[in-house]
Amino acid sequence: MNECKQMTVWALAFTSDMQMIDTARNGNEGECTGEEGNCGCTHPEKNLISTMTIQDLERTETVLLTHSPCETCAFELYYNMKLQHVFYKEEYRKTDGIEFLQLKGIETRKVDWTKWPIEQERVTG
Ligand SMILES: [Zn+2]
Ligand SMILES: [Zn+2]
Asked: Which of 13, 58, 78, 119 has the fewest CB atoms within 10 Å, i.e. is most exposed?
């Protein structure tokens, strides 16, 4: 999967006791057009879900994101996982995703990590 020319966004899946299950970043099977908001890249949440097994999805309770999820990704996370907590580093554009998760009783929090746990990430996909 090709990297996005605009920005790199990560999604990380954890169990209830914070064991990392899987990671994914945004990207494109083809070529990123570099056009803002329409670059053709798939969001990391979607890539994460598509690479995980059903068993792993079912034991994912916490998702860490570099950027708060868009509404579509928030739906995908909520309906595919045993989601309880979503933590993110930065708010990204619209907050509908966060509002949806809050409405569903998911804890959402902006967290300032001193060390983001994927500096030494392994790339999936
Ligand atoms: Zn892109
Ligand atoms: Zn998204």
From this structure: 119
Residues with CB under 5 A from ligand 1 (ion): 4, 32, 39, 41
- Residue-wise pLDDT for 3-42, tens only, equals 899 889 999 999 998 899 999 999 988 889 998 878 999 9
What does the alpha-carbon distance between residue 110 and residue 8 come to, in Å, rounded to a whole number? 18
Q: Which bound ligand lies closest to the C-alpha atom of 3? A: 1
The ligand minimizing its distance to the Cα of 72 is 2
- How does pLDDT run across 47-73, given as a tens digit for each residue? 999 999 999 999 999 999 999 999 999
Q: In CATH, what class is 10-30+40-110?
A: alpha beta
Q: What is the pTM of this model?
A: 0.88
